[in-house]
Amino acid sequence: MFKKILIANRGEIACRVIKTAQKLGIATVAVYSDADREALHVKMADEAVHIGPAPSNQSYIVIQKIIDAIRQTGADAVHPGYGFLSENPNFAEALKGEGVAFIGPPPVAIEAMGDKITSKKIAASAGVNTVPGHMGLIEDAEEAVKIANSIGYPVMIKASAGGGGKGMRIAWNDAEAREGFQSSRNEAKSSFGDDRIFIEKFVTQPRHIEIQVLGDQHGNLVYLGERECSIQRRNQKVIEEAPSPFLDAATRKAMGEQAVALGKAVGYFSAGTVEFIVDGNRNFYFLEMNTRLQVEHPVTELITGIDLVEEMIRVAAGEKLRFTQADVKLNGWAVESRLYAEDPYRNFLPSIGRLTRYRPPVEGKRDDGTIVRNDTGVFEGGEISMYYDPMIAKLCTWAPDRLTAVEAMGRALDDFEVEGIGHNLPFLSAVMVQERFRSGALTTAYIAEEFPDGFAGVAPSESDARKLAAVAALINQSVQRRGTQISGSLANHQRPVGADWVVTLAGFTLPLHVRDGADGMMVEFDDGTTLAVSSDWLPGHPHANFAVDGTSIGVKVSRSGTGWRLRWRGMDVVTHVRSPRVAQLARLMPVKLPPDTSKMLLCPMPGVVTSILVKQGDTVEAGQSLATVEAMKMENVLRAERKGTVKRVAATAGESLAVDELIMEFE
């Protein structure tokens, strides 16, 4: 077994590998850039080596810098994680030349499967179902349009060396094919140093289902079931689960056997994932093979009980697999939610800054038998950088069945506290309560179909509004009573606490009466219905569990002016609890309108302006591209909302802008 492993990565996956190495008694080495000097993986490792400036093309993907770190520390093995150099055959070969083990597949398999064009040819010859498409390289946008027309729209434009949703665009017409080709090429070049592009047919109403494979260097190769990864945004996975709610045993077996056949065709060993597109009739087509550990590997670990990182290390050390295909059993259901530093209220644009509060739910087995797991690479007080992927954590839950696992995920998301940056916790919570998600009717278009106008939060139903009103009433009563207990007040001048209040939230006005109950407080609404509510919440606590009508709900609580901001299950509301007279007067207060920015193009995220596509005096049409901004390895095209004339261009290409900073004005 290895004595020291260097992790050629950062963030949560570096921390994940370190945990298993520690379990096996293996020393670890972290590498870090300028931006990651105080990162969690650096603190967790036994040693750490600085490898350069913040941009990954000057640090994490520079092979020689990793080699230098290996020589400096004497590491005898390297785990690449995912992304960066994990699927670079030149890196694997360089390690071989150093006499250092690569904890991953052989370079020949990486090369064959890492190139999507070559991999499809190999898959077809191995008897694996493939999607129709153009497998040759494409030189320019006009050739891309010609090929797209021959295949038939819609088409998927992809970077040959891509991954993680980078360098991918769907085109429905010639204009989108031209623009998508150029954007994919630009992203591919900046992310992977390889701008080769190919095109294939886009399967409509598709599910994205992948098979986990694991093999050793002695010819043994097994599949460990599937993962459903259909809930995606911009081709990047957001929520995954295992197993899939769609597959039957026969399809699972057929997909697994084809995945193994493909692996054997290239002499594969270590962990790998074969991705398929599956249509509504359970016809499945090979998409690509990821020759590395997948981001979503925890859900497979939770339903199989197999530590994939440990198996990768053992395989790299020359050990045989410790189980056969017949030994692989799928137990229960697991769900994973990817917590991203993306603001769902601003069309999921990247958000950077300091984590002023970061409190994940407690990991481990719960009293109800469910399990919570959180893979993360950040900590409270740490900073989310603009240079890397926006993932903060991967929250996972396990239960004996799917709906229980989904319920456990909803509760865990309610208990997850993140402040200081924009993040997608409210969106993830909203998905967990959607009937379509709970029924398992998923496709890769799920987010686009269910949230066509973006995400603006969950509007509470009347039932939910009453629950939150009861919570607000309890909070108000606690604060009011606390105010009466201030020492030093004059005798016989104690302020009485009223029992009649009016709660307003999200368009609801709910008069209510409160009284003490046996186990807390009783809240009676004006129609006679009553809710019992209790909690151990104290003023200043940003989160607490409230028992409302016998059900425990986790609510985030904070002050908002004279009201209280309550967040629960994707709902984000400001509640005001007023006496009837004050509530009557409050209705007379004028509403303050936000400033008019309709004639401005503001930078929607912190990032670098890569191009300005118009100049002062130009007339622009609705939908026309105005500028591009790059943030967190993604290129974002900013378009005109309506026809107009450019009055002034305030930003220049290469300039770094903060969120809402002015790019241009219109007449």
UniProtKB/TrEMBL annotation:
**Chain ranges of the ATP-grasp domain:** 120-317
Name any cofactors this protein relies on.
biotin
Domain Lipoyl-binding, which positions?
A: 588-667
Describe the location of the Biotin carboxylation domain by residue ranges: 1-452
Transmembrane regions: none
Task: Establish whether keyword Nucleotide-binding is in the entry.
Answer: yes
SMART domains found in the cross-reference section: Biotin_carb_C
EC number(s) on record?
6.4.1.3
A molecular function GO annotation: ATP binding
Keywords per UniProt: ATP-binding, Biotin, Ligase, Lipid degradation, Lipid metabolism, Magnesium, Manganese, Metal-binding, Nucleotide-binding
One of its Pfam families is Biotin_lipoyl
Q: Which GO terms describe its biological process?
A: lipid catabolic process
What reaction does this catalyse? propanoyl-CoA + hydrogencarbonate + ATP = (S)-methylmalonyl-CoA + ADP + phosphate + H(+)
Q: Which InterPro entries match?
A: ATP-grasp, BC-like_N, Biotin_BS, Biotin_carboxylase_complex, Biotin_carboxylation_dom, Biotin_COase_C, Biotin_lipoyl, CPAse_ATP-bd
From which domain of life does this come?
A: Bacteria
**Listed pathway(s):** Metabolic intermediate metabolism; propanoyl-CoA degradation; succinyl-CoA from propanoyl-CoA: step 1/3
Keyword set includes Acyltransferase: no
Q: Which PANTHER family match?
A: CARBOXYLASE:PYRUVATE/ACETYL-COA/PROPIONYL-COA CARBOXYLASE (PTHR18866), METHYLCROTONOYL-COA CARBOXYLASE SUBUNIT ALPHA, MITOCHONDRIAL-RELATED (PTHR18866:SF33)
Name this protein carries in UniProt: propionyl-CoA carboxylase
